[in-house]
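Suppose a classmate hands you a notebook page containing two proteins, each written out with its sequence and a corresponding row of structure tokens. How would you begin to make sense of it? This section walks through that situation. The first entry is reproduced here exactly as it would appear on such a page.
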Amino acid sequence: MFKINDNYLKLPGSYLFSTIAKKVSAYSQANPDKEIIRLGIGDVTLPLSPVVIDTLHGAVDEMGKAETFRGYAPDLGYDFLRNAIADYDYKRLGADISADEIFVSDGAKSDSGNIGDIFSVDNKIAVCDPVYPVYVDTNAMAGRTGEYLVDQQKWSNVIYMPCTAETNFAPELPKETPDIIYLCFPNNPTGSTITKDELQRWVDYANKVGAVIIYDAAYEAYISEENVPHTIYECEGARTCAIELRSFSKNAGFTGVRLGFTVIPKDLKSGDVSLHSLWARRHGTKFNGAPYIIQRAGAAIYTEEGQKQTKQQIAYYMKNAKTILEGLKSAGYTVSGGVNAPYIWLKTPDKMTSWEFFDYLLENANVVGTPGSGFGPSGEGYFRLTAFGSYENTVRALERIKAL
């Protein structure tokens, strides 16, 4: 008889955002007259920029002609996109990353789960707490996380690095030595960042203990402060200890068309084994690349007009973030984030749990957010609101919350 991967059976309940969707659906069915404003899931709402749409149309036309038709994309991605990424996202910042160290994919979420394929199940992971749940969930599916401790809402074989108000929602170096360290800055869900000097400490630490850092930079385009690094490869020694994940979803609105990339330098090795070579083999065998049409659209982001339109979209969302941040502060809430990321991290009032505040907002203000406990044990008592709605809905949601 066939057997299943019983690690999946250890996962607690359903995925965070699935639970939210079910709760909202049930409320909507019971209250069809209520208009719900969604500031929960981190999905963009603005349409793709004109330069992207024009490029998509042009690429579709190419696919209809024999002389310009394209079939399977190259394993690593098309040169025109990887060269643009290398020049704009890395060389422009003084980061030593070449085009052949960039692997184009269908998104950072896919890569954050798939990257575990090249690591032994015996590796011990360290994660910020709270943080994007996909890191822990996919390692749990692979069998690295031990047993789920229901009373503590954590896994027995995971090193949790608390990110609290006392640490400015940034992690401290772990006391127990990990093999794989997940860092996400600007952070999802807290919106926190660290300086280049602080990130350098992590790079130095990883090189010292022989750990690898998986660095999620999906929100780097939202950084507004000069001392916050846009890539881990701005730090000396990062080429020998760090993998970086990037996405086109949040900066260019590609959540519906899917595009991202992962950087693995050729200097990153385990003993004599190159992780670059392992990922290249995995990428080629279990292909999760993106079609020619989508990669052409991605390359359009790096044109002068593409950058102009992308920055306009980011500015729109950050205006929303500022509106929420300042509005909640004036209403007496304790909030952070919203400066270098489109997320606002809110301390729940009156000692409410995260899910109690979720229900309270849904039922009394018809506003949907994300319970902080869904991002890790240290997220309990906190709540995430996103800036990815329309400005009009953002203002209306804030008015409803302030009226409670």
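The notebook's second entry, a different protein, reads as follows.
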Amino acid sequence: MGNLSTPIGVQKLQMALHAKAKSEADYRFYALYDKIYRKDILAHAYAQCRSNKGAPGLDGQDFADVEAYGVERWLAELAQALREERYRPEPIRRVFILNPAVTLPL
């Protein structure tokens, strides 16, 4: 991912979750949903996808479309939809890559 560094706030969350998981192996994380719509988490996820040259989804929306719309606005609307549990992701786009060394049963 090049020189994309993880923001301090995201690092702190990651370290806290890691420490909790290591210190209490039987602990179950039931309340993580509120973490995914944090502004810093969404911004970092977007930056990672952008630096990884992520492909458009089934809706055909690419980074140019998001940037034309406004990244901050797009992320804010996504966060709001996640917060209100209105977000419904599109089905994933699956691409099979054939490996000539492996034969698949018919």
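A careful reader of the second entry would note: The longest helix spans residues 8-23.
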